[in-house]
Write a structure and sequence with these properties.
Blueprint lengths: L2 E5 L2 E3 L5 E8 L7 E7 L6 E6 L6 E3 L7 E6 L4 E6 L8 E8 L18 E5 L2
Parallel strand pairs: 2-10
Antiparallel strand pairs: 1-3, 3-8, 4-5, 4-9, 5-6, 7-8, 9-10
């Protein structure tokens, strides 16, 4: 069964940090570009960051540039999102997905392979 399992979310104060993990099962992640996305209540899904299968290219949305860092460990079939300097507006459900195309900045996911997501809440 092909699936992603996201973890690492939680409640954090503004200015704090979290590290999200996205573990793939049922397929070999190293053959795919991967992206992180989020969706807050009442808002559209937002593409945040992506990393190429070869790890030589990354993309960050302006909203997270300089604060978030994407990385991957292909041996563990896992992609990470290190989130620093968190703001209340970062509160959302965070997902990962493969990106079938080569234009990472387009942030177009494979909609068939969404995980359940992990909730991030930034509040004092």
């Amino acid at each position: 069964q092909v699936q992603f399992v996201e973890s690492g979310g939680g409640l954090v104060q503004p200015g704090g940090s979290l590290r999200l993990s996205c573990e793939a099962s049922g397929f070999v992640l190293k053959y795919h570009h991967v992206g992180w996305f989020r969706q807050a209540p009442g808002k559209e899904r937002e593409g945040l960051s992506a990393i190429s299968r070869s790890e030589d290219t990354t993309y960050y949305a302006d909203s997270v540039k300089g604060r978030f860092t994407i990385s991957r460990d292909n041996a563990k079939n896992t992609v990470y999102l290190q989130m620093n300097s968190l703001k209340p507006e970062d509160t959302a459900l965070y997902f990962c997905a493969t990106i079938p195309g080569d234009d990472l900045a387009a942030m177009i996911p494979n909609y068939d392979w969404w995980g359940q997501g992990t909730q991030v809440t930034v509040s004092s």
